[in-house]
Amino acid sequence: MRRREILIVLMGATATSWASASHAQQSISRPRIGVLMGFPEGDARGQAYVLAMRQKLESLGWVEGRNIQIDYRWAGGDREKARVLAKELIGMTPRVIVTSTNQVTETVRQETQSIPIVFASLGDPVGSGLVASLARPGGNVTGFPVFVDSMGSKWLELLREIAPRVERVGFVFNPEAVPNVGLLRAAQSAAPSLNLKLIPLPVHDATEIKAAIAEFASGVKGGLVVATHAVTLSNRDLLIGLATSNQLPTIFGDLVFAESGGLLSYGSDIAALFQGAASYVDLILKGAKPAELPVQLPTKFELIQTC
Fold first, then answer.
1. What is the pTM of this model?
2. Is 258 inside any structural domain?
3. What's the pLDDT at 18?
4. Which of 90, 201, 252, 277 could bridge to 257 as Cys pair (CB 3.0-4.6 Å)?
């Protein structure tokens, strides 16, 4: 090889080394944020919540691709898929992981006790064992829950108002979800004073949803309350379709159901919860500890009724 060719090869190798070093330096200076959502990939509402979070981060000076890297994963209502994706995200060594729904948050918490976790849109973080208390969460988890147990009774009151002839109410919920059980108990306590018979409809998947509603709909003067959970969110088109085809007036616990065609929804402004999560991500990236960031209950609720 002639001297000029050797020089060119050496220059190329040096340039490659510089590029590698530059890339490594950028990776070190650009913290990673993991996001694991309890929505199916491509879900329009889930995408809107992520956008709200990203826009809030930008307003705080964190721009994706410039000074932060965000890795998104979508678990839907599949717990095992959530576990696989949680391990994948943890393997990327993010500075913080943002989660939604109890199922997803609990799964991530089981996989790491060191990486900070900021949740948005879940229920009863204390009863679920995710935090020690609202004021001082302890551990590596904090965030913004979507509702309190008393919401269960509020849903019944609203259903009574929009469907005064209803006598039986089927309460669709996940029996393994502590927040769903708390909402059910609140609804059960309120039912007698509203002259309603409450019938629990525990479900884990689409098959159970179909069977439970088919059996309930065989009775008369019925209505439904659908509690928010990864399973109900992921099967919202099915739930709305069954409620409509069986002529069951239904109130849903998340605004996304009404936006998808459900009769009525009453719940927190979820986008605002994800904006709150972004504010906590900002604080954690600046050195704050999740154990010292209080869990903040929702303050804004929205009622949406479709025609």
1. 0.74
2. no
3. 42
4. 252
